[in-house]
Amino acid sequence: MKLTLVQPNLDKKHQNQRQAYGSPNRPPETGLAVLASWIDSYSQNQHETEILDPTQSKEFIAHQASQSEMLGITDWFSNHDNALEISRQAKQINPKLKVVFGGPNASMMPTLILRNHPEVDFVVSRDGEEALLGLAESKPIEQIPNIWYRYQGQIKFTNQKHTDLRKMPLWNFSKHKNSAKRLEEYLAAQSSGLDPWLTPPVTIFSFRGCMKAIREGVCSYCTSSEEKGRALPENILWAQIRHLNQQHNAEIFYMCDDIFTISPKRMKDIADSRPSDIKARIRAYSFLPDLAKLPQEELERLAKDLQKIGVFNLFFGSENYDPSILERMNKRGTTIEETKRVVKTIYDAGGIKTTIAYLLGLPGETKQSLDLNLGTLEQLLNINGEIERLYLSAGMPLIGTQWYQLLLKNSSLVREYLSLKGKTLKDEDSPDYGLLTRLSIKHTTSVNPEQINEYITKFTDFARRKMPEYRIGGFLLDLGDVN
Fold first, then answer.
1. Which domains does the chain have, with CATH numbers?
2. Hey, which of 9, 43, 69, 89 has its CA 20 to 30 A from 313?
């Protein structure tokens, strides 16, 4: 079978998303490389897999995809419209083409996608390796895990299964069209030895699942947290990094785990198993409340292990320093004093700098909480440069989150959305998230969209005094007004 895979670029309406890098051009997509490698390693038949270049026009991508038998698309909320348009165009050219949607957004709304879009044949929920392989091998649908599909006018699900990461083959970008060209900017920035934030890095992973979600439940604003954890063995992680060193000269990586620092023991095991020939500089996510509760000596040891691994930056989603707001979102917070201790310790002991993230406009937001959070940012950015990057967003109630489900129960909000858009919110798979965010602010906070915009500007202006503007990123930086 001939398969094509693609992760489309951002929809026009989401192009105000800023990734907090100097360039918007991303390297080839790791998720698609993993899928292609899995099919090559475990298929019983010969398959031809090609990963398309998302920088081409939608029309060109659709034409290429139509020449295959199956098209797999990575669907995020921010590229959903482009994914659907490519699918429609490809299916018009080749009605026999099987279209498979996967990715975090598709996993949150499989029935909506299949109900609203006849051009999509299957939706993969979460892990896609065995699902895509089963479809490529034409196995009976009921034998393929993680698949949503249509049957006799109904939408059905097969069964949930998690990929065994101990079986993960090594992957590279050899299946990607124009991979060398797409890596040029990244490699040029890497070889300059200058700022690692000039371009987005190559993505890798070491763990699937979110330890916070496993232990405490999912945060109410989160779509990516999985409550089942699976670890990539340390030897496979380092073999994969060596493989990318050798195949592509890649040395700067983004560890895309929900939480990389899942435990001090895991970090020590990875650090102690690092081969001497590996070249790796890694930015990763961490969970601030877990680090804040570590005794000082243990936090210092963890910082040294992270330094040995090659971590140069940890991303902390502080989100908000008002505990009542975080409690509504099922998120444990930290005090500003605890945050400063963690940030200072990991820098002093391990040379690790910090990315800090805030979410404004969450339910319960007040003028006082906005002032509180602005004050904490000023304190953090005044501690000797350990904070090198800011992620600042208006919180979005994405489909699949508990927050979104709560808004669906707000009859006044739902009626207002219908009045303004002429569409029923619960039936939309591509809602107007800008409007929905504004309505959430109106109905669940004591502030208004103009005030959120005002504070986004204040946060950004202060951060610009401490770091280059391209290191300031986020979503929906202009909320406008509900009316």
1. 2-166 (3.40.50.280), 201-473 (3.80.30.20)
2. 9
